[in-house]
Design brief:
- The chain is an alpha/beta fold.
- It contains 7 helices and 17 strands.
- Strands 1-2-3-4-6-8-10-12-14 form a 9-stranded mixed beta sheet, with no helix packed on it.
- Helix 5 links the parallel strand 3 and strand 4.
- It is elongated, with a radius of gyration of 26 Å.
- About 9% of the residues have low confidence.
């Protein structure tokens, strides 16, 4: 009887161990399925699997880990720096004061909102770069102050939804990509803009009027494109300008009427201040007539319309988005 009892006890121990192993296996399989699903969403959002490396932190690596470590929150706990999501910053503070290092932005964002996107130099980090148009899904981040996407092999034209989505934007940096088309003149609607950088692209056309309407504009970088003709007449009223780089636009011509730059202490540590016009025909007469700027209509801006954004959990988040962004999000989560 004792021997039988011992055997039964041993069988019970083995059964318990097997049950524990089964539980662990089920958990591992469940986590593997979650990770596979999230990787699939990453690839759908970013294309060609680029999200696996570049945007993995935006999606986490398993729902359990997301819940335990609260990684769904892009801002993290302090809400005053670079948060849980790579390339994303949340620099608002209690009471709305700006707490980032670049204090000249004067950002008044409340805590808990994404204020900075800084995805740079992906052409050298990611094979082939991003090789896509600027994603309209960024419109969900309505409190952005900085949109920096330089050096990513982005293609297409500057999107018409930018002024509608980012009315608080301070810095727009789309430099060193493969953008085409002309400078849209709706930038005059972005009255808080301080930095406008589109250098190193394949853009063309006249430089439009309107920069002088931006009361705090300090940096305009248009170099290394194919802009042509004389500069807009309102450049002579750029009273706050610190950096005006126009070089390597051989077809720019005519006089350069810009106020003398008064260097601001510490600001010029960010970029070399001054006006640079090498490899242009500026300060030389224009030899042919160019399209006139006066009376040009405002370039169209894509409007914001109601959009119910679906999530992986099946919930719907009400938002106002341009139709192009809403359409993309609906396709991703079909």
């Amino acid at each position: 009887i004792s021997v039988v009892q011992e055997e039964q006890e041993e069988i019970s121990v083995v059964q318990e161990e097997q049950e524990e192993i089964s539980v662990v296996q089920e958990e591992e399989e469940s986590q593997a399925v979650e990770e596979e699903e999230e990787t699939q969403v990453e690839e759908e959002v970013t294309g060609d699997g680029l999200g696996v490396g570049l945007f993995r932190s935006w999606f986490g690596s398993g729902r359990r880990r997301l819940q335990e470590e609260n990684l769904c929150d892009p801002c993290g706990e302090d809400n005053q720096g670079w948060g849980n999501w790579k390339h994303v910053g949340c620099r608002g503070g209690p009471g709305g004061e700006y707490t980032g290092a670049r204090s000249f932005y004067g950002i008044d964002a409340p805590a808990g909102y994404v204020t900075n996107i800084h995805i740079t130099d992906q052409s050298t980090i990611t094979p082939g770069g991003l090789d896509t148009e600027i994603p309209p899904e960024f419109c969900l981040l309505t409190k952005l102050r900085e949109l920096d996407l330089d050096g990513g092999n982005l293609v297409g034209e500057i999107p018409s939804w930018i002024p509608s989505c980012f009315q608080y934007l301070r810095e727009l940096d789309l430099s060193f990509n493969f953008l085409t088309g002309e400078i849209p003149n709706w930038f005059t609607e972005m009255r808080g803009l301080q930095e406008y950088k589109i250098e190193g692209n394949n853009m063309t056309g006249r430089v439009p009027e309107g920069f002088a309407n931006l009361e705090n504009i300090r940096i305009i970088r248009l170099e290394e494109n194919d802009f042509y003709g004389p500069l807009p007449q309102d450049f002579e009223f750029l009273s706050t300008i610190q950096v005006l780089w126009l070089f390597d636009n051989p077809r720019l011509c005519g006089p350069v009427k810009v106020p003398e730059i008064e260097l601001v202490c510490c600001f010029c540590e960010v970029a070399e201040c001054g006006i640079f016009t090498q490899n242009t025909s500026l300060d030389q007469p224009c030899t042919q007539p160019w399209p006139r700027l006066d009376g040009a209509p405002m370039d169209p801006m894509e409007p914001l319309l109601p959009c119910a954004v679906p999530t992986k959990s099946g919930d719907l988040i009400p938002a106002e988005l341009p139709p192009s962004a809403c359409e993309v999000l609906l396709q991703v989560y079909e």
